[in-house]
């Protein structure tokens, strides 16, 4: 029996209602049956042709409910199914609620006509790639995580997502809320290039909170390179969430490493380097930052270190800034006032400071290499450098560059 559009079924809400008698007479080929009960209940009383998505998993698996046919929703007593019908209706589905749920169906004497008793194969039907498949018994639901990245600035949201997913197994689901506009593009590209699946990407209005749902991919897909299509939901980002596949594939000895040569000792340029380095580290890339000449001042300890120096070395040390707190701007430095202003603005906008970005980088395995030759010329000794810095030369840089698909000179 097809669902009547008028007169026979109740339309007192924005979705429709049916009775146990109408449910029992349904032609299952014309509808999708969605069972919200727990797997143990379904095993005991499975409903023929019904797809089982427990109520507490519906938020993560709603996008996999097939479209194109009415969805008849039922639970144990009809309360959870009403909530899910409202959600489905908001998402554009034609939702129909079985009033009273399976209990009403059983009490009305229709359970035997709809239930395949003892058929364990039908007990835990699930959805995979929008096709109904059977599994016995019901598989454990994938773990679901949540990241609150609201208020975080680049690269904060991406780093938070990467940190949360990194230790988890393939198939883990993660939802994230963010407010930075750039996150719309960043999360799509990050998912594509790291082999993770962007399930959905939506936004509450033009400037509202951005919601993304991801599924961790397997190790075999970690290099990305496949298209990612987002579910539409209530609102799409930029009209479409389809991200084209990258046409650049690894070839020869070239990997996806990133290498930065920091020649400048300017605060603004250094901040940019560490933002990009942290973003690359969040994508699982090996990152090397090679500091040479004026860039070495970034690595100096803020307090004076007593080491034996020549007169020329002492003159260099006196004229150069010692550590990140004394770096100036490449433009509008104004005797150091500009640097203080930009730090104040970064703090007020919740952008991580340079010192925080550097710690974040080292915590995520970014390699900091100081050029030994430049240190010798400028009279900087190893004891004056912050912890965690390696010493290297041109071969160290070239070795990192040969396995990188990006090398930037700043």
From TrEMBL:
Alphabetized InterPro entries for the sequence: DsrE2-like (IPR032836), DsrEFH-like (IPR027396), Rhodanese-like_dom (IPR001763), Rhodanese-like_dom_sf (IPR036873), TusA-like (IPR001455), TusA-like_sf (IPR036868)
Ranges of residues in domain Rhodanese: 27-114
Taxonomic superkingdom: Bacteria
Record-linked PANTHER family: CONSERVED WITHIN P. AEROPHILUM, PEROXIREDOXIN FAMILY PROTEIN
The protein's name: Pyridine nucleotide-disulfide oxidoreductase
């Amino acid at each position: 029996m097809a669902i009547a559009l008028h007169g026979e079924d109740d339309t007192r809400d924005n979705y429709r209602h049916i009775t146990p008698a109408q449910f029992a007479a349904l032609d299952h080929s014309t509808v999708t049956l969605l069972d919200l009960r727990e797997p143990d209940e379904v095993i005991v009383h499975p409903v023929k042709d019904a797809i089982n998505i427990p109520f507490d998993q519906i938020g993560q698996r709603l996008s996999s409910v097939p479209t194109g046919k009415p969805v008849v929703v039922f639970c144990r007593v009809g309360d959870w199914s009403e909530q899910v019908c409202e959600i489905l209706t908001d998402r554009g589905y034609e939702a129909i609620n079985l009033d009273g749920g399976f209990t009403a169906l059983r009490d009305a004497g229709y359970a035997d006509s709809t239930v395949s008793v003892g058929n364990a194969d039908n007990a835990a039907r699930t959805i995979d790639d929008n096709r109904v498949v059977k599994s016995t018994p019901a598989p454990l639901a994938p773990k679901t995580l949540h990241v609150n990245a609201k208020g975080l600035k680049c690269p904060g949201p991406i780093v938070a997502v990467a940190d949360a997913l990194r230790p988890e197994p393939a198939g883990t689901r993660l939802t994230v809320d963010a407010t930075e506009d750039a996150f719309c593009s960043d999360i799509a590209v990050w998912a594509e290039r790291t082999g993770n699946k962007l399930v959905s990407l939506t936004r509450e209005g033009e400037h509202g909170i951005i919601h993304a749902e991801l599924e961790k991919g397997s190790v075999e897909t970690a290099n990305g390179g496949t298209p990612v299509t987002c579910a539409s939901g209530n609102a799409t980002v930029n009209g479409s969430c389809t991200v084209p596949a990258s046409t650049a594939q690894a070839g020869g000895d070239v990997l996806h490493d990133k290498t930065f040569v920091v020649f400048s000792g300017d605060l603004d340029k250094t901040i940019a380097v560490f933002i990009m380095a942290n973003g690359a580290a969040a994508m699982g890339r090996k990152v090397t930052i090679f500091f040479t000449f004026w860039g070495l001042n970034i690595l100096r300890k803020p307090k004076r270190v007593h080491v034996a120096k020549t007169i020329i070395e002492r003159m260099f040390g006196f004229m150069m800034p010692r550590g990140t707190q004394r770096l100036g701007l490449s433009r509008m430095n104004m005797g150091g006032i500009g640097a203080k202003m930009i730090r104040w603005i970064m703090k007020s906008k919740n952008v991580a400071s340079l010192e925080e970005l550097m710690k974040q980088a080292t915590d995520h395995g970014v390699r900091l290499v100081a050029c030994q030759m430049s240190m010798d010329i400028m009279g900087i000794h190893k004891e004056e450098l912050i912890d965690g810095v390696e010493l290297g030369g041109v071969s160290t840089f070239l070795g990192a560059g040969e396995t990188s698909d990006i090398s930037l000179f700043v």
